[in-house]
Amino acid sequence: MSKKLSTASDRELVDRFNSGERPAFDELVDRYSSRAYQVAYGVLGNREDAEEVAQDVFVRVYRALGKFRGDAEFTTWLYRIAVNLARNKYRWNKTRGGQRTISIDAPRVNQEGERPGLDLPEPRVGPDERVAVEELRENVAAEMEKLPPLYREALMLRNVEQMSYEQIASVLGCKLGTIKSRIARAREELRKRLKL
Asked: Is the pTM of this model over 0.70?
């Protein structure tokens, strides 16, 4: 009987997949599909597009996993693919996709009452304060969607995915100073827009 995949490291799963053990790939998908979606949603701000990109991420990963050298962490490599595919989709939507449509059936919040990709702590306060916090949460999400893509991507990877500045620089293919600057500018722009 083989070792449970859920206890294996990412590197072990990659090695197992490359040696012919196909269920190892399923474990990688289980581990990172929601994160791939969050990265794509952070760039695109559209649920359907983010789902499509997240699926495409794993198609790309499946095809390229044999070439994965391990120079970077698997997650860094995966996030880079996700960001690049989301950027491509964003550009396509902007140039050829025409006007962006929003499904009236698409929920604006998830089952927990939060917008996907934004984890803010649940307040332990009265109803008036809860309404104010929810309104702020919605305003932050709406204003994040309006940020320039370069700022939004960096801020989302830092605050939502909780990646280090170094990891973000690797994922986005930028210098560390550039990432720090983008995140600082994104935060300042959000403060101005939200009048905080």
From this structure: no
